[in-house]
Amino acid sequence: MRQRWWLIALLAVVASLGLTGGGAGQGRLVAVPAQSPTSSLAGMPRPDHVVVVIMENHNLDQVVGDPDAPYLNQLISEGALFTQASAITHPSQPNYLALFSGDTQGVTGDGCPNSFDTPNLGRQLLDAHFGFGLYAEDLPTAGDPVCSRDQYARKHNPVPDFTNLPGRLAQPFTAFGADYAALPQVSFVIPNLCDDMHDCPIAAGDAWLRSNLDGYRRWAATHQSLLVVTWDEAEDNSAANRVPLIMAGQMVRPGRYAEPVDHYRVLRTLEDMFGLGHIGNAIPSTPILDTWLGG
Prior knowledge:
The chain has seven helices and ten strands. By secondary structure, the chain is α/β, with parallel strands linked by helices. It starts with a helix and ends in a 22-residue tail after the last helix.
């Protein structure tokens, strides 16, 4: 009887600490971790580097097969295209916030400035001892909180919106450089309002991607790294909000994938690649698992 009493007491302590499969421990995934790096989710690669490029305001069928987008269609032929990818809402700014923080943060427009102290991918990566950087074309100086300057728009740069991040994480695109091994583990690239296809034709954005990201694409193909090209939202303001989503890199299984994907699933995938916790609407999302070679 005495041994049985001690066994019951021990099980009660274990359950209270959340160490069993059910009960209180299940709710702890919502916390942003302050931890050392852990292994990636089983079946997923751990890239050495990920570069996420965010383009603007085009539907899937405006890009796929368009003769004005030869470089993007080259990426599609060599990599993975998600044919059922969608943005979260309209207009632009809440989609950037969704991809970066798992939530639109209550933002419904493109107003500036905003200020949040909520969890975000940059904070997650720093807390887990990884690197993060955002490279914005025409940003005047590192960490500049200006709302707009020339063709730069802060509404496309979520870093200065979060008070729990050092402003220096937002760098001018000139800092991206050609030494790709020196990049942080995760980088966001934000072209200016012309080169992201917002104010200029598809051909201009396609040419910019070839000139500025093809070196990284070729390097990533032999250096266990990943390039992601997505769009913030569709141009047609539809409820479907269907956008192109392209992935290329050494670990990518080429092909077309018809599974539903949105900004929250992309965030969840990045979190699981680097063994992070989960935040916001990435918590109920599932990572992309079927796109990886050797997974």
